[in-house]
């Protein structure tokens, strides 16, 4: 499905070459929810951007469904941390943007957009502009916009990082509900362990400087998960300990 | 920012008060000091201004003079807007286009439009074309600069999002760079409407037989202070109305940019 082989990324700085990402090998299965988990400033976003085609790897290749990735493309949907909604478009305008630029006729794209607006629970806000929405609602719209292009892969870069704790819990539950409803292959980046254990089928723990794979955990807990279930807490503890050693 | 009705009324009253005080001071100075020998008071000027709607100054009534000047401004301003927005956004968006056109633009930009008067007369004669050219120059540089700044400051995350959603480069330019630059473009359009209006007066003072600039020049020739002041009043009022209209259009089109 998604395959990263020997991914490397180096940046040139005044003090010479600076290795951000080192030898990442990753395989993500169809409809798998993979979480990339690692400390603050590591190259998680860089890895995601290379899968997206927004950054070019210095070495190695990314393939999605066997096709090599060289540039951005609509079969890979992205949900960002920062608010990336187009502020001059309404919720409807944002959600139908993808189908619109790809030339889908108005009636068809409206129906698709409406379906996903309903799915993320934003019905009634179709004509609202992003400034009129709360942080959680903006991310709902961002998820609907990514879904409306019917991508085979969803790339999520700390989508809930800027939300308050209460909204964040709610959005984790919402995302799981949405994903159960319409499954996609997901690569989800976070530095929040609770979020990782709650959402992931598999967690890839990344070590810092340069970013490389440190450990992997399969999470087999039944969904929807309970944040205070003993097994949940045990896994959370185990992974936290493993990460602390890498810092 | 939501203002209460009461605050709005207070603001309007404060403005009316200062205008009223200015007119009262002027009237007093004309009646009580030697200023009265040099120029008429506001009552005389406003009366003449109102009369000028029916009694022509030269060949035209005051509203016809304003109409002439406005039509010159509109034609040149529209051309400047299209060229300026196009060039500015393209320069801000594409480094190659920027490398080619920006240095030339940077040299032309600081030249005041009236410095072009002798050359433009040689090129275009004394007719309408010279006036269009001068107004175009005065509007063009502001509009281009602001459109350029706007396109430069577009959030790269938005451009990336648009590419990821399937837009090609041209679609990204038209559906992301252009709308994201709109607040900047409107700032430029607003400054440009004021400079265009100022330039049409200068251009008409060079040579014309009608227009608000002509009203002032012909008054100068006959030493008619009253007519000069009628011309100035007309220029001020129209300038104020144009700026107000532009602000209104901006508020409507850039609604998304006003938070809360």
Automatic annotation (TrEMBL), chain B:
<keyword id="KW-1003">Cell membrane</keyword>
<keyword id="KW-0472">Membrane</keyword>
<feature type="transmembrane region" description="Helical">
    <location>
        <begin position="12"/>
        <end position="30"/>
    </location>
</feature>
<keyword id="KW-1133">Transmembrane helix</keyword>
<dbReference type="InterPro" id="IPR035906">
    <property type="entry name" value="MetI-like_sf"/>
</dbReference>
<feature type="transmembrane region" description="Helical">
    <location>
        <begin position="172"/>
        <end position="193"/>
    </location>
</feature>
<protein>
    <submittedName>
        <fullName>ABC transporter permease</fullName>
    </submittedName>
</protein>
<feature type="domain" description="ABC transmembrane type-1">
    <location>
        <begin position="66"/>
        <end position="250"/>
    </location>
</feature>
<feature type="transmembrane region" description="Helical">
    <location>
        <begin position="107"/>
        <end position="126"/>
    </location>
</feature>
<feature type="transmembrane region" description="Helical">
    <location>
        <begin position="74"/>
        <end position="95"/>
    </location>
</feature>
<dbReference type="Pfam" id="PF00528">
    <property type="entry name" value="BPD_transp_1"/>
</dbReference>
<dbReference type="InterPro" id="IPR000515">
    <property type="entry name" value="MetI-like"/>
</dbReference>
<keyword id="KW-0813">Transport</keyword>
<comment type="similarity">
    <text>Belongs to the binding-protein-dependent transport system permease family.</text>
</comment>
<keyword id="KW-0812">Transmembrane</keyword>
<feature type="transmembrane region" description="Helical">
    <location>
        <begin position="229"/>
        <end position="249"/>
    </location>
</feature>
């Amino acid at each position: 499905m998604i395959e990263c082989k020997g991914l490397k990324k180096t940046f040139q700085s005044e003090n010479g070459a600076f290795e951000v990402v080192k030898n990442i090998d990753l395989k993500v299965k169809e409809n798998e929810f993979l979480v990339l988990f690692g400390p603050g400033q590591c190259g998680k976003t860089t890895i995601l951007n290379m899968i997206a085609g927004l950054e070019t790897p210095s070495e190695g290749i990314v393939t999605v469904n066997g096709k090599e990735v060289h540039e951005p493309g609509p079969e890979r949907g992205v949900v960002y941390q920062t608010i990336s909604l187009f502020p001059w478009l309404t919720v409807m305008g944002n959600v139908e943007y993808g189908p619109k630029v790809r030339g889908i006729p108005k009636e068809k794209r409206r129906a698709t957009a409406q379906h996903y607006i309903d799915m993320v629970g934003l019905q009634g806000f179709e004509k609202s502009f992003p400034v009129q929405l709360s942080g959680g609602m903006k991310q709902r719209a961002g998820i609907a916009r990514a879904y409306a292009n019917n991508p085979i892969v969803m790339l999520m870069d700390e989508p809930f990082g800027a939300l308050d704790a209460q909204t964040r819990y709610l959005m984790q539950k919402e995302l799981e509900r949405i994903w159960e409803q319409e499954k996609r292959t997901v690569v989800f980046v976070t530095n929040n362990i609770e979020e990782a254990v709650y959402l992931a089928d598999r967690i890839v723990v990344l070590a810092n400087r340069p970013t490389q794979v440190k450990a992997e955990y399969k999470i087999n807990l039944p969904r929807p998960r309970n944040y205070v279930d003993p097994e949940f807490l045990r896994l959370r503890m185990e992974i936290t300990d493993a990460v602390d050693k890498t810092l | 920012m939501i203002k209460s009705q009461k605050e709005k009324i207070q603001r309007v009253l404060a403005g009316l008060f200062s205008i009223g005080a200015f007119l009262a001071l002027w009237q007093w100075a004309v009646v009580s000091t030697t200023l009265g020998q040099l120029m008429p008071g506001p009552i005389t000027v406003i009366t003449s201004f109102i009369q000028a709607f029916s009694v022509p100054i030269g060949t035209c009534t005051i509203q016809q003079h304003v109409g002439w000047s406005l039509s010159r401004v509109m034609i040149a301003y529209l051309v400047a807007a299209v060229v300026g927005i196009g060039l500015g956004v393209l320069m801000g968006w594409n480094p190659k286009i920027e490398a080619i056109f920006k240095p030339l633009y940077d040299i032309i930009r600081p030249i005041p439009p009236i410095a072009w008067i002798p050359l433009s007369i040689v090129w275009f004669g004394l007719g309408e074309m010279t006036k269009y050219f001068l107004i175009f120059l005065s509007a063009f540089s502001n509009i281009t600069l602001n459109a350029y700044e706007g396109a430069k400051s577009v959030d790269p995350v938005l451009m990336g999002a648009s590419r990821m959603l399937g837009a090609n480069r041209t679609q990204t330019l038209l559906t992301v760079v252009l709308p994201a630059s709109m607040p900047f473009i409107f700032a430029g359009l607003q400054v440009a409407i004021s400079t265009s209006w100022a330039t049409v007066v200068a251009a008409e003072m060079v040579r014309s037989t009608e227009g608000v600039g002509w009203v002032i020049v012909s008054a100068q020739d006959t030493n008619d202070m009253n007519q000069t002041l009628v011309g100035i009043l007309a220029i001020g009022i129209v300038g104020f109305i144009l700026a107000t209209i532009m602000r209104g259009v901006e508020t409507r089109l850039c609604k998304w940019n006003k938070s809360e």
